[in-house]
Design brief:
By secondary structure, this protein is of the alpha+beta class. 16% of the residues lie in helices and 46% in strands. The chain has helices at residues 2-27, 33-48, 97-101, 151-155, 260-266; strands at residues 53-54, 58-61, 67-76, 84-94, 108-113, 116-121, 160-171, 177-192, 195-206, 209-218, 223-229, 232-239, 249-257, 275-286, 289-301, 306-314, 321-329, 350-358, 361-364. It starts with a helix and ends with a strand.
Length: 365
C-alpha cells in the first residue's frame, strides 16, 4: 500500500509538471508564439469587428485572474490601402476564465501604451474607419458580449487607461486637421440609476495647445462634458433620444475664448488677431452627421470691431446646406468715417449679408 501511494504521488507530480510545462509552452513559450498570436488575433477580430494583426507576441497569465498581454498590434484600414486605422505598442486586458475555456475573449480593464489612431478621409471620401453597423453582430461573438462593432463604441463600454496616445484627424476634402497628443486617456465605468455611467477624461495637447476634457455619460440620462483647448473653454450638454441609434444625441454647445489669437493657433488658422470669441449652438448628431441650429458666433477685436454670425448649418462637416446671417461692425471704437463727398470716399460703417448654401450652390443677399 505504501509503494502504491508513493507511485501515485510520483505520478501526480510528474503529471503536474507536464501540465505546467505544457501550459507554459502554450501560454508563454516562444515555441508556441504563432499559435498564440493567430488565436488571439482571430478572437479580437471577432470581438472588435475590425481586423487585428499582431506583429509582436501574445502572452496569457492565468493567476490570479486571466490576463492577456499583446505587443505590436495593427488595425489596418478596410477602405484605404496601405493605411492603418490604429497601431499600439502594448495592450493589457483581463478576461474571465470561462471565456478562455470556451475559446472566446471578453476584454475588460484595458490598459494600453503607445496607441496611435489615424482618422483620415481622403479626397475621394474614403475613410480609414469602417462605417458603423450596430445592428449586426460580429461573427463568432459570444453571448453576453457587446454588440458594438466600432472601436469608439467598443472602448466606451469598458474601463480603459491609455498612456502616450496620439489621434490624428485629417480630412483631405475640407482641410480640417487636428492632432491629439494625450499623456493620459481614461474611461471609467460606474453604476448609475439607469445602468452604467461612463466617465471620460483626457489630458495632453491638441495642435500643440494644452488640452483637458472631462465628461460624464450615463445610460438613458442627460450627459455633460467640459474642457479647454488653450485659452478656449467649452461645455457640451445633451441627451441621446431613446429611439435613435447609439452615437446620436441632441444637445447644446458653448465655447468661450479670451484670446482670439490663441484660438486661431489652436485651430491652425493663419492670421493675427487680438480679441475674444464666444459661440453657442444647438447641436444634433444623426447617423454620423452633425447639424447646428440657433448658431450664434461673435468675434470681438481689441479695437471694438465685431463680427457676428447667426443661423443654421446642416451636415456641418461638408457645409452642403446652410442659412447664415453675417453682421460686421467695421468701425468699433474708432472715430466714424467722415461724410463722403465722392463715391471713392465712401467708407461703410458696417456690413450685413445673408448667405444661403444648398448642394454646392451659394446665394448671397
Amino acid at each position: 500500500m505504501t509503494n502504491l501511494i508513493k507511485r501515485m504521488t510520483i505520478g501526480l507530480a510528474v503529471a503536474l509538471i507536464f501540465i505546467v510545462g505544457a501550459l507554459w509552452i502554450v501560454l508563454s513559450s516562444p515555441v508556441a508564439r504563432e499559435i498564440r498570436v493567430q488565436f488571439t488575433a482571430e478572437r479580437l477580430t471577432d470581438v472588435i469587428g475590425q481586423k487585428v494583426i499582431i506583429e509582436g507576441d501574445a502572452y496569457v497569465s492565468l493567476l490570479p485572474s486571466p490576463e492577456v498581454i499583446i505587443t505590436e498590434v495593427r488595425l489596418p484600414s478596410e477602405n484605404i490601402p496601405d493605411a492603418d486605422l490604429a497601431t499600439l505598442d502594448l495592450v493589457r486586458f483581463t478576461t474571465p476564465q470561462a471565456y478562455l475555456l470556451g475559446y472566446g475573449v471578453v476584454m475588460s480593464e484595458i490598459e494600453a501604451r503607445g496607441l496611435v489612431i489615424k482618422l483620415l478621409r481622403d479626397k475621394d471620401g474614403n475613410t480609414t474607419w469602417a462605417e458603423d453597423n450596430s445592428d449586426q453582430k460580429p461573427k463568432g461573438q459570444s453571448e453576453g458580449t457587446s454588440e458594438r462593432t466600432d472601436i469608439i463604441g467598443f472602448l466606451g463600454e469598458r474601463d480603459v487607461v491609455f498612456t502616450d496616445m496620439e489621434v490624428d484627424v485629417d480630412n483631405e476634402k475640407t482641410g480640417f486637421e487636428f492632432d491629439f497628443d494625450l499623456t493620459k486617456f481614461e474611461i471609467n465605468q460606474s453604476p448609475h440609476e439607469e445602468g452604467k455611467k461612463a466617465g471620460v477624461y483626457y489630458q495632453g495637447e491638441i495642435n500643440d495647445q494644452k488640452a483637458e476634457f472631462t465628461g460624464h455619460f450615463p445610460d438613458g440620462a442627460p450627459f455633460e462634458a467640459a474642457g479647454h483647448l488653450g485659452a478656449l473653454r467649452f461645455k457640451l450638454n445633451g441627451q441621446k433620444p431613446p429611439d435613435r441609434p447609439r452615437g446620436d444625441f441632441d444637445g447644446e454647445i458653448e465655447l468661450i475664448s479670451g484670446d482670439l489669437q490663441n484660438l486661431l493657433d489652436s485651430l491652425r488658422l493663419t492670421g493675427t488677431a487680438e480679441g475674444t470669441a464666444e459661440a453657442k449652438a444647438m447641436i444634433q448628431r444623426t447617423n454620423g452627421l452633425v447639424d447646428l441650429d440657433d448658431t450664434d458666433l461673435e468675434l470681438k477685436r481689441a479695437d471694438g470691431r465685431v463680427a457676428r454670425l447667426t443661423g443654421r448649418a446642416k451636415d456641418f462637416g461638408t457645409a452642403s446646406d446652410f442659412d447664415l446671417e453675417l453682421f460686421v461692425d467695421l468701425v468699433g471704437d474708432n472715430p466714424p468715417p467722415p461724410p463722403a463727398i465722392f463715391v471713392k470716399d465712401i467708407r461703410p460703417k458696417s456690413l450685413e449679408m445673408r448667405i444661403i448654401g444648398l448642394n454646392g450652390d451659394i446665394e448671397i443677399d
